[in-house]
Amino acid sequence: MNQPGHSHSDDRAHGEHGGSELSDMTLRVKALETILVEKGYVDPAALDAIVETYETKIGPRNGARVVARAWIDADFRARLVADATAAIAELGFGGRGGEHMVALENTPACHNMVVCTLCSCYPWPVLGLPPVWYKSAPYRSRAVIDPRGVLRDFGVVLPQETEIRVWDSTAEVRYLVVPMRPAGTEGWSEDRLAALVTRDAMIGTGLPQVPGGVPA
Amino acid sequence: MNGAQDLGGMMGFGPVRPESDEPAFHAEWEKGALSMTLAAGACGLWNIDMSRHARETLHPAFYLSKSYYEIWIAALEKLLEQSGLVDGDELTAGERLRPGKPVRRVLRAVEVPKLLAGGSPYARAASAPPRFAVGASVRARVMHPQTHTRLPRYARGKLGTIEAVRGYFVFPDANAHGRGEDPHWCYAVRFAGRELWGAEGDPTLSVTIDAWEPYLEAAREPA
């Protein structure tokens, strides 16, 4: 996200997210909520609490914190690679959608990219809710057969010799990509480094920002 | 099942469209789709594998033409009706026609942080050692169950290598159909891109899936 040259927010006006059916969905979902509340199955305050959690508390800044820590603390990085669930819990993150975490280290020779071809599995505690494109047919269909083409859609071109490892989240294991630390950040604080770590860099469809604002 | 959810390797959907500064929700109703799916699930009448099966059994034309939260709502309505919590005529009318039934649990706001922070670990105590060791050559079985499975079509019949032993996990193929958790060993299995996609495949690509032991058989051929 926040990478130059591929803003598609104009697509939203053309039905990418439901278009003219939005008002139908508004009525249908509102009616369903009323039924469930009146039957005593759900508590409206619990619904609000769930939404508030994912709007304000759980999102990709959590994952960025994990990556920045791994960049500055070799011991933490070793623990992250050995048992990502436990290492991530050290920073206070974990739970639903991240019960069984695995960290994938990018290197100059190898780039990792994560997909769920079968549904929308995504590491919620560290990245929040998945973006629309992650759940979309174009990404889920093509990531496993043409990852370089997918990367081009994100404005990312890797060297031809770079090995590409795609991880299809077909079980309850959830993956977090640890991108390479950008050059020119020696001596930076964890906070400053975390600001460079984009959500897409932790999925493997992007690269971290570099000092000056251009992707590495 | 070979439903529309099994998308890996399909073509023709066009480019991926990243969105700058994407919001958590694109409409108010999406908040309801997320929160009701989680809260109704907490009633305890179905599990995550049943939820996935409810989505993959939607008509392929519907599945491929709707947004993901529309799929979630359609599947939630199906689960509510199948479990007897809401009747079809109530969904059609858009209002409650009968009183609710007792449920095991109603999620309260105060319990939400604990529910989300706790999650639902899928690892179980193993009753036997894993059959395959890291580095072993395995072949994904050719199978086309009409029921739920997490073995994608593109991997079936393909030769791969055990990359890691992930754990002894609840088996979705059973759990989705009320046949209990039936846990099995689950492995990361790595396939070369050209094994999956043929000689024209990207030579630098490999794809790793997480596969339960019943999906795999020992391979005679060298990797």
Structure notes:
The complex is a heterodimer of chains A (216) and B (223). Chain A is of the alpha/beta class and 216 residues long. Helices cover 42% and strands 11% of the residues of chain A. Chain A is globular, with a radius of gyration of 19 Å. Chain A starts with 21 loop residues before the first helix and ends in a 13-residue tail after the last helix. The model of chain A is unreliable at 1-20 (pLDDT under 50). Chain B has a 5-stranded antiparallel sheet with strand order 4-3-2-1-5. Chain B folds into 2 domains: 28-118, Orthogonal Bundle (Cyclin A, domain 1), CATH 1.10.472; 137-218, SH3 type barrels, CATH 2.30.30. Chain B has 223 residues and is an alpha+beta fold. Chain B is globular. Chain B has 8 helices and 5 strands. Chains A and B meet through helix 1, helix 2, helix 7, helix 8 and helix 9 of A and helix 1, helix 2, helix 4, helix 6 and strand 2 of B. Strand 3 of chain A pairs parallel with strand 4 (205-212) of chain B, so a sheet runs across the interface.
Q: Keywords, please?
A:
heterodimer; A: 216 residues; Nitrile Hydratase, Chain A; two-stranded parallel ribbon; 11 helices; 11% strand; globular; B: alpha+beta; Cyclin A, domain 1; SH3 type barrels; 2 domains; 5-stranded antiparallel β-sheet; 8 helices
